[in-house]
Structures are given as structure tokens and as C-alpha cells.
Design brief:
The protein is an alpha+beta fold. Helix content is 32%, strand content 28%. The strands form two sheets. A five-stranded mixed sheet has the order 2-4-5-7-6, covered by helices on one side. Strands 1-3 form a two-stranded antiparallel ribbon. β6 and β7 form a beta hairpin. α1 runs parallel beside α2 and α2 runs antiparallel to α4. The radius of gyration is 18 Å and the shape is elongated. It binds adenosine-5'-triphosphate and magnesium ion. One of its GO terms (biological process) is cellular response to phosphate starvation. One of its GO terms (cellular component) is plasma membrane. Keywords: ATP-binding, Kinase, Membrane, Nucleotide-binding, Phosphoprotein, Transferase, Two-component regulatory system. Its main location: membrane. It comes from Microcella daejeonensis.
Length: 165
């Protein structure tokens, strides 16, 4: 089934709006969202939702969280950026593991199970894509989901038939 990326982003942002307001985090979105992918809308919403929820949870208010969409060739990239606490380099590989949380003591204080990012990874992979992270402690993090998008073939439109001489 074809899923509209604009609907996915809008729903994921809406789901985080109340928390963001309460924690004085501004959600800022940009980019061209007019594209579609093959897959499951609810799964994609939950993946983007998880990334935004993390970005809010691991920010220090007041702050901004960016949700950007970009398209290149046959992939759509959804990037969620925060200016939060970041992740130490030696932990970066592990954040997508189930139940893994950076600094267990600190993580316990903020609640959560450590499942969010493993779900994001599964959803991205189930859609033929992947998720990547860039992060620096004290500076922030960017999580990027890349998924193949539906590319409309111009040649699929009916072509005028030339009469033979
Ligand atoms: P939950 O299951 O409720 O999502 P969680 O947020 O702890 O719990 P994940 O979303 O899987 O679990 O994230 C795993 C760990 O990666 C987090 O505990 C946190 O230490 C780190 N992390 C994830 N996102 C960020 C972020 N945007 N900035 C800093 N650290 C992050
Ligand atoms: Mg989480």
C-alpha cells in the first residue's frame, strides 16, 4: 500500500505536540513532504513518533527539535534533529539494540524501556530502508530514516500513437 509521507509526518508531530508544549520544546518542520512510500502508515508514524519523542525527552528546555524531509532520486530521508544531551561515541552502535539505554542510572530517572529505537530500526528495515545516527555529547543528535520512495514514471502516461504512413 502506498503511504503519503506528509500524512506520516503530520500525525507524528501531532502526537508529540502536547508533550513538546509542556516541556517548552518547539517542533520545527521543513522540507518537501509530497512523496509516497510502499508500506504501513501506522508503523511509519510510530517510527517517526519515537524519534521525535526521544528528541524531546533528551533535550534541555527551552529548545528546538527539527523534523526535516528531503528527497533524492529514489529515497526519502526523514531527519529528526535535537540540540540535546547527545550520545557518547562508544555507545552509538548500541542505541538501536533492544532495552539498551545510555547510562542506566540517568536513563532510569527519565523513564522508558529502551525499545523505541529498536522499533524504529525494524520499521525502517521492513520498508527496505535504514536508520542512522549522528550525535555529539552536549551538542545534540540527528536520527535519519531513509526509505525508498515511489517514483512516478513519466512514461507511464499514455503516449500519443503516431499513425504509420
Ligand atoms: P523508550 O522505550 O521509552 O523509547 P528509551 O527512550 O530509553 O525508552 P530508545 O528510544 O530505544 O529507548 O533509546 C535508547 C537510548 O538511546 C535512550 O535511553 C537514550 O539513552 C539514547 N537516546 C535515544 N535518542 C536520543 C537522543 N535524541 N538524544 C540523546 N540520547 C538518545
Ligand atoms: Mg525512546
Amino acid at each position: 500500500q502506498q503511504v503519503d509521507i506528509d500524512r506520516v509526518i503530520t500525525a507524528a508531530i501531532d502526537q508529540n505536540r502536547v508533550t513538546a508544549d509542556a516541556q517548552r520544546i518547539q517542533l520545527v518542520s521543513g522540507g518537501d513532504r509530497r512523496t509516497r512510500v510502499w508500506g504501513d502508515e501506522a508503523m511509519l508514524v510510530s517510527a517517526v513518533h519515537n524519534l521525535i519523542a526521544n528528541a524531546i525527552q533528551y533535550s534541555v528546555a527551552p529548545a528546538r527539535v527539527g523534523i526535516g524531509v528531503s528527497q533524492r532520486d529514489d529515497v526519502v530521508e526523514i531527519a529528526v534533529t535535537d540540540q540535546g544531551i547527545g550520545i557518547p561515541e562508544e555507545e552509538l552502535d548500541r542505541v538501536f539494540e533492544r532495552f539498551f539505554r545510555v547510562d542506566q542510572a540517568r536513563a532510569r530517572a527519565t523513564g522508558g524501556t529502551g525499545l523505541g529505537l529498536s522499533i524504529v530500526k525494524h520499521v525502517a528495515q521492513n520498508h527496505g530502508g535504514d536508520v542512522r545516527v549522528w550525535s555529539q555529547p552536549g551538542r545534540g543528535s540527528t536520527f535519519t530514516i531513509r526509505i525508498p520512495r515511489v517514483v512516478d514514471e513519466p512514461s507511464a502516461a499514455p503516449q500519443p500513437v503516431k499513425a504509420r504512413a
